[in-house]
Amino acid sequence: MSNFFGQNFRITTWGESHGPAVGVVIDGCPARLPLTAEEIQADLDRRRPGQSDITTPRKEPDRVEILSGVFEGMTTGVPISLVVRSSDQRPEAYDEMKQKYRPSHADYTYQMKYGHRDHRGGGRSSARETIGRVAAGAVAKKTLQLAAKTEIRAYVTRIHDIAAPVMTGFPTLAEVEANAVRCPDAATAARMIERIKQARSEGDSVGGVIECRVRQVPAGLGEPVFDRLEADLAKAMLSLPATKGFEIGSGFAGTLLKGSAHNDAFVTKGGQIRTATNHSGGVQGGISNGEEIVFRTAFKPTATILQPQQTVDIHGVEAELQARGRHDPCVLPRAVVIVEAMTALVLVDHWMRQAAQNQTFRF
Amino acid sequence: MSNFFGQNFRITTWGESHGPAVGVVIDGCPARLPLTAEEIQADLDRRRPGQSDITTPRKEPDRVEILSGVFEGMTTGVPISLVVRSSDQRPEAYDEMKQKYRPSHADYTYQMKYGHRDHRGGGRSSARETIGRVAAGAVAKKTLQLAAKTEIRAYVTRIHDIAAPVMTGFPTLAEVEANAVRCPDAATAARMIERIKQARSEGDSVGGVIECRVRQVPAGLGEPVFDRLEADLAKAMLSLPATKGFEIGSGFAGTLLKGSAHNDAFVTKGGQIRTATNHSGGVQGGISNGEEIVFRTAFKPTATILQPQQTVDIHGVEAELQARGRHDPCVLPRAVVIVEAMTALVLVDHWMRQAAQNQTFRF
Amino acid sequence: MSNFFGQNFRITTWGESHGPAVGVVIDGCPARLPLTAEEIQADLDRRRPGQSDITTPRKEPDRVEILSGVFEGMTTGVPISLVVRSSDQRPEAYDEMKQKYRPSHADYTYQMKYGHRDHRGGGRSSARETIGRVAAGAVAKKTLQLAAKTEIRAYVTRIHDIAAPVMTGFPTLAEVEANAVRCPDAATAARMIERIKQARSEGDSVGGVIECRVRQVPAGLGEPVFDRLEADLAKAMLSLPATKGFEIGSGFAGTLLKGSAHNDAFVTKGGQIRTATNHSGGVQGGISNGEEIVFRTAFKPTATILQPQQTVDIHGVEAELQARGRHDPCVLPRAVVIVEAMTALVLVDHWMRQAAQNQTFRF
Amino acid sequence: MSNFFGQNFRITTWGESHGPAVGVVIDGCPARLPLTAEEIQADLDRRRPGQSDITTPRKEPDRVEILSGVFEGMTTGVPISLVVRSSDQRPEAYDEMKQKYRPSHADYTYQMKYGHRDHRGGGRSSARETIGRVAAGAVAKKTLQLAAKTEIRAYVTRIHDIAAPVMTGFPTLAEVEANAVRCPDAATAARMIERIKQARSEGDSVGGVIECRVRQVPAGLGEPVFDRLEADLAKAMLSLPATKGFEIGSGFAGTLLKGSAHNDAFVTKGGQIRTATNHSGGVQGGISNGEEIVFRTAFKPTATILQPQQTVDIHGVEAELQARGRHDPCVLPRAVVIVEAMTALVLVDHWMRQAAQNQTFRF
After folding, report:
1. Which subunits sit against A, judged by 3+ Cβ pairs under 8 A?
2. Chain C: partners with 3+ C-beta pairs within 8 Å
3. If you average pLDDT over residues B38-55, what whole number do you get?
4. Where are the alpha helices (DSSP H) in chain A?
5. Rg of the Cα trace of chain D?
6. Contact between residue D325 and residue C291 where contact means Cβ atoms under 8 Å apart
7. C245-302 pLDDT, tens digit each
């Protein structure tokens, strides 16, 4: 259970790595949103395997089909069902995993939880599940864009120990997409790509950090006390495969400042109340304050490596496992669009939740 | 909206800083749990103001009253209503805040969201709201303890730049409670306390990091794909006032390892499948694997400082603000029990969610 | 679990018949709603025991206290906690019920479900639980009234076999409140009152039907396909103690018409699209069409009667039970305001759910 | 929004009448349930058009495909995605409906709610949406059957004014399926069929009542106070197209009894606590008591009739509408399996909700 996300703009994803298809149902998308399959496809293309020489060489076109919810080019307010058929499957590559648990994968825990699992490619725990998130995220992005001109940009800021310099401006999509690793700093990107290739050549893997920034967020989004905007963003990020950490604004480093240095003084700029600094990361008391939302997510090194590893089989007998197959030596380049998707889903949901307050008893 | 938390063991907290009372309703606590007000009070006493010389000197006994749900010393399965009356209120200390927004507080965002706010002491955004969480958390802890012997221990590992050495064993409650800052390493604790006192003497504040560990967690808790255990823990932590980051297991530092070093090899110990290391932090694929759950939460320095600060008033005119009153120069010592409470609430909820699977179609 | 109701305007009720208090927390009430305790009290007074000579003679003032969520006479958007202290308790009147199950009460099923129950006056299953609903309903009514001028009127149309003539106009509140049984037809009301008194004199009880009508409902409320307006109204009514049936518009009798007679022809009146008849009861396809909403709810005769009854004790041994105490020979007069409350809660929730659609992509 | 149903065994349906497909995602089905497409198909065949000479002559095979959640013949605990492709579509039959609102259909209300609608065959408001419910209901039925031997039987008890005699025993599936109208009393069934044919020959339609009975329901299902079993059943039934009423146990007629006659005396039969009568309909205080659950649902006459009708066009101009196409003159025969499906969905959900209580603190 819990394959759904959101309260108002609610998505339910389904599908396993080696099943016939994966998909998502969006329940709650507003009516009259212009929407085409091509717009969704554009984001899926940023996620699909085989898109560059630092991702898995698997070939999956990942073509999306809209089965419901759109009529004459516009949403109708009813559920939008999106399906992507699978094609490039080699389930036999996973025969060994039926008997042996892959370290730091979900094989063992799914077995403990359910007593029965689809071992092929991780089944439901595969990152292939995120196709539904990206497809739904594209619809959420478009909704936010039309409704509030909100713009979401994620990018890689660190791969292993190679960190990009601090970004000052808001990177353009073109800057992010200019290289295979999706780091808007070209020089750093080149070094990151080398590090990923090196790890792959060693049969190893690397992780890193993705930063995400959002601008044109109306002040007032976020629901105290439990569904704070940063709480829902944290949940969204930690619900992604391979994530181990989340921080917003000043984050962990902010704990090294004293309050007098950390507080964001209010100022008036151009007739608007703004903050002089943004250690808060665009959220105060769980509610957006109109400044840029800035947060970072830590992704661990890919669990699948092409080196022999110690493990146990399903009877608890110790064994050695040697992964085969075609894997990403680093998940971050393909995860950038997934981070954007989850961010969009959180924001559009909160934007809709605030709607009732907006139409009631205002001055 | 969203003053509730949990799906099965669901709590709703209510109350403002300077209202007549704060409280919580627990809906879904199993019947036949032995429960007394004293057990709940024990945790509230760890949270209450005035408990040591590094917390606010405000005097609030914070006595809990059970208004429903317990009969003849046992829960009955119906809602448990817990209320704490307020006593030591000085609303006049906040008159200035009616007109001026405090930096890095929620005054401005509440005004933007609702168009009307209780300015006294932050109203609903006050940390006083966490009384309900701690009270409900005590009930959750007891449920877990009786049902699965699950043990939860939070403690301070860093204040400002003073970090405790890595904990090897599982600290006892007595070790955590042995000093005012709640760091189980006595020598570090003494230095932390000095740092907090120093910050207070400067009219300033400090933040830091709380670590939480849980043992005796049954394998199989956590619901893929969105309600992963770490996702719900992340949300729980980021829903707390003053938090800016969350990491589980290896966390952000884990991104500096390669996959070959990061993966947790499976081994057999004492007839049980275990992992040789625990970079995963007790969760794989969103589901507990039976190892210790370990995570950390970053708390920013307290926003209220006793120095003049630049801000604007409600009309956008720049102004200076000088906080008065009695405040914590560091929230972490009192937040330890709150972290435990939220952890317990997440775990008991997932434990109940797994119940249906446990009673169905097992071997 | 499930002591909460609503998605946006969400209430959680708590409290047992003979506990120290009962109450409700409203989460999601819009900010800036003017609200006083007196407004809530007015509806509680219509529900309280001892209000007339055909209700239980128990004396409970049922005074409501607002513990949170209202500041300077206006809601602030945070939870509204309402509490009513209990006073006139005679738990010893229920000692026999600790050992014997009362027929057609919830004693036996609570015992089966929870394995432990508060036997005093039915504990949580007591109609005293509805105090929280009425208090929250008063807030919902006010919200609807200010937001959309929506008006809700419930009244008794049948007691036992004494039925009021079909109402043509929309009864005023004064007409409903003009007599103790709350039937706006005075002549019928007199006969109903006699029937209730007669049942009471026999130690027996009677049931009947309450009709509810709502006008000024904006077209467009109700969420296909599962949260249709009539589905949520049906759930709301069947969640009330002692209810056995619900029908909307033509209801069960409508099944005796053919389609050609049952269909509501569309016409244009005063420039607005209306229907010539209203067999639909104001709802088509689960969505309000702007016509009056009309529905009826069946209440069974009160289960507590003052005659000896056959039953079993908690060990399954057959026994005779003789109820004592002070009971309503007919619940309908006091249930009228409860029906209104639940109706208001359903409508305000759907009105808020429609808000996001209303602010998006309109012409 | 709200195209999902259930808390634990949660379904989301999607698809429009004339879209490429309809389907359902089941989130929360327990793992290790043996499941085949054929089992689901069996119930879809009871719902599909063209199955007899009293239903619409449209030919749709309605073949179900399982796209996820089942591996090696058993569910895995992850979402089950079921899809039915559409084939026999004649959207041009609905061209007139683009401009004119059909009386007592959802055309007008969808337009008011969303400002944009798929007019072809009612779009989302079409009864074709119930395919997903029936498919999911088949899975729910199987779960209940394996878990608790629970048996659900719905059948037609009245068509127009032709009522079957009171059923004494629990009808077998064969008895229900023995005739086209699905009334287990053969003589009455023949008269019902005649009435339906007569209505069709007049270009008219008829409604009626479906009764549903459930046996082998464990005592203890149902969640006070809002998610009472009868409340969720009422909502489930009123969420079906064309329903106008619901009653459980004695229902509306029970209001004509006095309490002394209506109360169900407890007795001991075969060592078990039972009730001598069953006016309660198997539910007391919102919780199942182990007796048969018995309820009835009223279905209005089909809104689509083949006679000219008065209506307005989308500009409010009065017009005449003459339906064409192939329609059911009476929905009840095909609705029987839909009632069973919704009943199963309610029960399996409550059975899972009770699981946590069952595994906790029992004697």
Report:
1. B, C, D
2. A, B, D
3. 94
4. 37-47, 95-99, 107-114, 130-148, 173-177, 186-201, 229-238, 259-262, 332-353, 355-358
5. 21
6. no
7. 999 999 999 999 999 999 999 999 999 999 999 999 999 999 999 999 999 999 999 9
Task: Quote the percentage of chain C above a pLDDT of 90.
Answer: 87
- Do B263 and A103 lie within an 8 Å CB cutoff? yes
* Residue D81 near chain A (CB below 8 Å): yes
Q: How confident is the model at residue C57, as a pLDDT?
A: 83
- Helix (H) or strand (E) run with residue B65 in it: strand B64-66
Put simply, the answer to whether C289 touches D222 (Cβ < 8 Å) is: no
Tokens 């307010």: give the residue: A77
pTM (two decimals): 0.97
* Contacting residues of D for A74, CB less than 8 Å apart: 116
CA angle B100, A252, A224 (to 5 degrees): 45
Three-state DSSP state, B132: helix
Cβ D160–C258 below 8 Å, yes or no? yes
Report the residue of chain B nearest C75, measured CA to CA.
B116
Reported as a pLDDT band with limits 50, 70 and 90, residue A1 is low
Q: Measured between alpha carbons, how far is residue A362 from residues B101, C30, C80, C146 in Å?
A: 21, 10, 19, 12
Cα dist from A120 to A124, D27, D36, D204, D248, whole Å: 9, 21, 20, 55, 48
Identify the three-state secondary structure at position D33.
coil
Could you give the CA distance from residue D242 to residue D104 in angstroms, rounded to a whole number?
Answer: 9
Could you count the other beta carbons within 10 Å of the beta carbon of residue A53? 11
Domains assigned to chain C: 4-358 (3.60.150.10)
**Which of B195, B284, B338 to substitute to test the interface with A, most A CBs within 10 Å?**
B284
Token pair belonging to C129? 């639980």
Inter-CA distances, C197 with B113, C322, D235, D242, Å: 54, 20, 35, 40
CA A286 to chain centroid, in Å, comes to 21
- What contacts C232, CB < 8 A, 6 or more positions away? C222, C346, C349, C350, D235
Strand order in the sheet with D21-27: D4-5, D10-14, D21-27, D80-85, D64-66
Interatomic CA distance for residues D189 and D195, integer angstroms: 10
Cβ atoms B162, B191 nearer than 8 A: yes
Structure token pair of residue C223? 């969420």
Let me know if C161 is exposed, middle or buried by CB neighbors in 10 A (0-12, 13-18, 19+).
Answer: exposed
Q: What is the DSSP letter of D100?
A: B
Q: State yes or no: pLDDT of B317 exceeds 90.
A: yes
Contact A332, A244 (CB under 8 A): no
- HSE-CB of C10 using CA atoms within 13 angstroms: 20
DSSP letters spanning C120-161: GGGGGGSGGGHHHHHHHHHHHHHHHHHHH--EEEEEEEEETT
Burial class (CB in 10 A: 0-12, 13-18, 19+), A89: middle
State the Cα–Cα distance between residues A250 and C293, nearest whole angstrom.
Answer: 53
Q: Quick one: which of B321, D141, D20, D267 has its CA closest to A260?
A: B321
* Residue D83: strand, helix, or coil: strand
Task: Determine the residue among D7, D24, D25 to mutate to test chain A binding: the one whose Cβ has the most chain A Cβ atoms within 10 Å.
Answer: D25
pLDDT tens for residues D216-250? 999 999 999 999 999 999 999 999 999 999 999 99
**What does the DSSP assignment read for A248-299?**
ETTGGGGGGS-HHHHS--EEEETTEEEESS-TTTTEETTEE-SSPEEEEEEE
Which residues sit opposite D284 in a β-bridge?
Answer: D287
Structure tokens at B190: 């003494």
- Do residues A159 and A182 touch, judged by C-beta distance below 8 A? no
Answer for the pair D269, C268: CB distance below 8 angstroms, yes or no: no
